[in-house]
Amino acid sequence: MEKAPEKDVPLNIKKTLIESFGNVHLLPSRHRRIIERYAIDLFGMLSEVSRVLRPRGKAVFVIGNSCIKGVFIQNSKALIKAAEFTGLKLKNEKERDLPVASRYLPMPEDQNSSLGRRMRRECIITFES
């Protein structure tokens, strides 16, 4: 069972963050709760980064978007939105192919399998305080 959120995040922020992931409403309720928890965790993490980062300090994140049950999940957009809510400013956003040799799991022979469709690209996102 999915763990309940530990922090209270204002409802309007939580709703906006969840919407920024994309078509989450198309997922089964269990997966929607996982995304909700991830949104809350992103907000908590970025709140802490914002708190400890020096003035004009930079924070760089590498994040992959994903596909769950055939639904594209925009983790990078949710990260950017959470950062905005915590006062961080987007400085740069790049996307690049994720080399097959750099993946944590080898690519299956069938590129159209569920594993083969996962994280083919990664986003490098830079924020400034």
Describe the protein in words:
The chain is α+β, with helices and mostly antiparallel strands and 129 residues long. Helices cover 35% and strands 22% of the residues. The chain has one domain. The strands form two sheets. Strands 1-5-4 form a three-stranded antiparallel beta sheet, with helices on one face. A two-stranded antiparallel sheet has the order 2-3. Strand 2 and strand 3 form a beta hairpin. Helix 2 (29-52) crosses helix 3.
| Spans of at least 5 consecutive residues with low confidence | none
Q: Which structural class is indicated by helix and strand composition?
A: alpha+beta
**Oligomeric form of this entry?**
single chain
Spatial order of strands in the largest sheet:
1-5-4
What separation lies between the terminal Cα atoms? 36 Å
Instruction: Please tell me how large the radius of gyration is.
Output: 16 Å
Largest sheet: 3 strands, antiparallel
